[in-house]
Amino acid sequence: MTTLGNNGFILFCSLFLAGYLVHGATLYEYSATIECHKQPLDPQYGGGLIANPGFDKGIEAWKIDGHVKIEARESGGNKFIVAYNRTTPYSVSQSFHLKKGLYYAFSAWVQLSEGSDTVVAMIYNSAQKTVIIVGSVIAKSGCWSMIKGGLTVDHNAPSVLHFQSNNTKSELRVDSVSLKEFTKYEWQENRLKNIEKVRKRTLRVNVSNKDGKKIGGAKIKIQQRKLQFVIGCATPSSILMSESYQKWFVSRFTTAVFDNEMKWYYVEGLQGHENYSTPDAMLKFFEDHGIAVRGHTVLWGADNIQRWVKDLPPRQLLSESVRRMGSIMSRYAGKLVAWDVVNENLHHPLFEERLGKNASAMFYKIASSLDSKATMFLNEFNTLEHPGDMVSIPSKYVEKLQEIKAFPGNEELVIGIGLQGHFDSHPNIPYVRAVFDLLGETKMPIWLTELNVMPCSNQAYYLEEIMREAFAHPAVKGMMIWIGWKPDRCNEMCLLNYELQNSPSGDVVDKLFAEWKTTNLTGVTDKEGSFEVKVFHGDYEITFYNPNSGANVTKEVQVYDDKSETLHVSISL
After folding, report:
1. In angstroms, what CA-CA distances link 223 with 204, 519, 545, 547?
2. Is this model's pTM higher than 0.70 or not?
3. Which residues participate in catalysis according to the annotation?
4. Residues 462, 468, 474, 479: is their CA dihedral positive or negative?
5. Helix (H, G, I), strand (E, B), or coil: what is residue 293?
6. pLDDT per residue over 537-561, tens digit each?
7. Cis omega (within 30 of 0) on the bond before 297?
8. Stretch (H or E) spanning 78
9. How does 260-272 read in b/e, with b if 16+ C-beta sit within 10 Å?
10. What is the pLDDT of residues 392-446, one digit of tens each?
11. Strands (E) located in 357-445
């Protein structure tokens, strides 16, 4: 027999009463591709709201958008629509009605007749008179690329889907278009089902005596000590000065990242004058408390770097950058779990501009040789949080990742996908899931590295929604919350106030910690001496008690995700 414990029972009741356990909900299609295909795949969900999604009926339900001609064509048995003779970026469109409170998953396949360019799918909402970008991709000639994205709307309204490309010399071809609606309950049930699938594993305990005889009726108590999925937090050096803040931090998080204290400008503001005293002290504090640390960041080409670095000629910039890498990475090699190697280099390509297109790839090669134990991350903003930022859309992120891995010696390098996650006051949750789907196809580990939500009335609610999306997705392996608490202020999102009491966002984090942990679970072995239960991945302490003999044993067990169905743990009493 298995008991849920108080937190498990409360969670079940709350989900049931909230309507989350709705049966027969539409299954979300997590499938995606980052490869360019010879032929597009069929429309997801049969097209959903989209009429004539595979163009089996020619151009029916589709309209001319702008100064353009359109026609249906067929190639290799595949039917699609073509916009040609374009004098503006626009092409084809279709109208439908969108509803407030629903989640919309979008996908389509696009191709250009010549060259390559970013193709953007957008929806015009007539009630709000706004354009929402729902997805984009770098389209090419000779093969089909998949756009995947999504949206929500704040008002019921007639809406129009558009496809746009600035390469007006090229024909724009579109196929397999889909827009599927989900109720809030359906969306959340898909998350819950996925959590059961990807964050839990069956644990089977087998109890016998010293002679090998199976013991029925043995009492089992299971207590989780650590979650395998990483939930960490950022902190400035103020943590060294507040014992109360230290207690608050170490009682919750398994991983830390420093706000600025490892950055080049922090430890070497003046050329040749390094000072590592603060990051040294911070690292020692976290080591003493068994908390892992991410290295943020080795190099950064943003405008706020030191003036003396900006003014260096290319040859000296290279030598100073390599010296910087050797200095910080050799100092902390083997002590960190990850490094942000060249921070935000899609938005700030200083090193590529000054040193050549392979600059970052070379730096990742050097970094991996300096610290072979840590995961090297490509850390970028707006890939996840702002679909309208064309600099760092998922396909451009993938392009950069592939460029780095193509550099000699980097082919087998595991590069962590660092998605910062600085969200505004209205995060696009369906788009977030779609980005996880796409970047998950790289088979590289995804982390949210700087997660926060800008101050707004729904800050705590949106933080919870984003954290749930990340935890439910199999490609995501960790998330770091970005708060930067100081005694007199914090950056954008506070988990606690100046009296070190939880804010509503802090309450959300604590609630999810409790929900995603298997605690105070008890049971009794059956007549075969076995007890089986599904638990969250992580480190456990299991206590076995034989009421007949009074024998009592406690064992530490790691229940990790290794793709096998059941973990068998045997004990003799």
Report:
1. 15, 5, 14, 20
2. yes
3. 344, 450
4. positive
5. strand
6. 999 999 999 998 999 999 999 999 9
7. yes
8. strand 78-84
9. bbbbbebbbeeee
10. 999 999 999 999 999 999 999 999 999 999 999 999 999 999 999 999 999 999 9
11. 375-380, 415-419, 422-423
